[in-house]
Write a structure and sequence with these properties.
single chain, 459 residues, alpha+beta, Aspartate Aminotransferase, domain 2, four-stranded mixed β-sheet, three-stranded parallel β-sheet, globular
Length: 459
């Protein structure tokens, strides 16, 4: 793998160390032909005119096919899971070249169901990243398994795959990388560890619709993959989830679990179908994690726009990166060489105060928002959430793991790189990448304006 990471120094704030090989996209490029904004004007936070006054693209995109799909389901009167959901599952399976697909009520439901199908339960350990939405953690705890956090790679904001093997014990039963923000975790390294130890890899691709690893869609690279269809996601039905997999038995267990434990099997056409004799007969433990027909119909309509929207995000993100690479103190998230497509559910970068005269991240974000550019400080340190220790010290967990094991858990799960990442990350949402190229000029222009006026903003 090549080492294309930018060599510029961030005054010690981003100590990337010696783990930057296999990254791309970090070379400083020549300045693009951009619309110029006067950086000399007073910052909006101090009473000046903002760079941008118009809202960014609205979400979701609603067109006539959405209304027709919804109305059709409404009038047919079959509102529970039906033919629209089945058509969506087949369409998603075709798009991702996945042998089997099961739709669920949410991304969380998809992850929870998948862990059940992989036989994860009390006494098991599941490896997860500390920089992710809480659902990644919750589904592990809800199965009474022990979450083991592996530190972040601050250059990519993904799990540091080089640290996974050291976290494996004889209790490790699953590795669950997250393709955060639509970027892709280092799947070559992760799969190698999984194969070496005989541990399945469950991809949390909830934010990564159509992202790719070596030209293969994420969600199909590991043993099982899950997507979210929640309202903010790049493919959206308000709530919903998808499970992808290639093992028929595992996927039949997924189908059965989310449908109250009914028996499912693979028919002669290779489709996972409910056993005709199991309407009120049950093959396994189960739950109601089913998606509705309304969601299936909306997803079919939304799917017609997914590729075009994905291409627009990519184009705008690449253009924005060429500009932000020219601003000292702004370091866009890198991609591993194997990432052949980034879904850009989030556009993420790290902010270095020294290049802004010591302007704090919170003040930078407040100034950027005042300029009309929505942004977020991203996730907090998930591995340090107080509810984890309260959960682990509940009577049930103490009976499973014992007081000594639980007492050691905190020291096993220190993530110093992630602690630092949580103080320096800044996010833009996917809708900010759906507009014209000039929107990217305004984002970069606002950041340049803040940097130029950092001294005044410090006052």
């Amino acid at each position: 793998m090549s080492n294309d990471l930018s060599r510029r120094t961030l005054l010690g704030v981003l100590s990337l160390g010696a783990t930057v090989s296999g990254l791309k996209g970090g070379k400083r490029l020549s300045s693009p032909a951009t619309k110029t904004f006067s950086v000399d004007k007073k910052p909006a936070l101090l009473g000046g005119d903002p760079v941008r006054t118009e809202p960014f693209a609205s979400w979701p995109v609603i067109e006539n096919n959405d209304r027709k799909a919804w109305q059709t389901v409404l009038e047919k009167g079959k509102w529970n899971r039906g033919p629209s959901v089945e058509r969506f599952e087949k369409a998603w399976a075709t798009k991702l070249e996945s042998p089997y697909v099961v739709a669920t009520a949410s991304g969380t439901a998809a992850l929870y169901t998948s862990l059940f199908a992989l036989n994860i339960g009390p006494g098991d350990e599941v490896i997860i990243p500390p920089y992710t939405f809480v659902a990644t953690l919750n589904v592990v705890l809800l199965h009474h398994a022990l979450p083991i956090f592996v530190d972040s790679d601050r250059s990519t904001l993904q799990i540091d795959a080089n640290k996974i093997e050291k976290a494996i014990t004889d209790r490790t039963r699953c590795i669950m990388p997250v393709h955060l923000g639509g970027n892709v975790a280092n799947m070559d390294a992760i799969l190698e560890v999984g194969r070496k130890h005989g541990i399945p890899v469950l991809e949390d691709a909830c934010q990564a619709h159509l992202a790719e690893w070596r030209n293969k869609k994420v969600g199909t690279v590991g043993d099982v993959g899950c997507f979210s269809l929640q309202a903010s996601k790049n493919l959206n039905s308000g709530e919903g989830g998808i499970i992808c997999g290639r093992d028929a038995d595992v996927m039949a267990r997924c189908a059965g679990f989310q449908d109250a434990g009914r028996g499912y099997t693979v028919n002669s056409d290779g489709e996972i179908v409910v056993d005709e004799n199991s309407e009120f007969g049950y093959a396994t433990l189960g739950d109601n994690r089913r998606i509705t027909e309304f969601q299936g119909a909306l997803l079919l309509a939304q799917l017609t726009r997914l590729e075009e929207q994905a291409q627009r995000r990519e184009t705008n993100a690449e253009y924005l990166t060429t500009q932000l690479n020219e601003i000292e103190g702004i370091l866009p998230a890198q991609m591993y060489d194997g990432c052949t497509r980034n879904a850009y559910h989030l556009y993420m970068f790290c902010y270095s105060p020294p290049e802004f005269l010591g302007l704090s991240r919170s003040r930078f974000i407040k100034a950027l928002r005042a300029e009309g550019i929505p942004c977020s400080s991203g996730y907090s340190t998930l591995n340090k959430e107080p509810f984890i220790e309260r959960t682990l010290n509940s009577p049930g967990f103490r009976r499973i793991y014992g007081a000594d094991e639980i007492a050691k858990w905190k020291n096993r799960n220190k993530c110093p790189e992630n602690d630092q990442l949580c103080t320096e990350a800044v996010w833009f949402g996917q809708t900010q990448l759906l507009g014209p190229k000039s929107d990217m000029d305004q984002i970069a222009g606002a950041i340049r304006k803040i940097q130029h006026n950092a001294k005044a903003l410090l006052a």
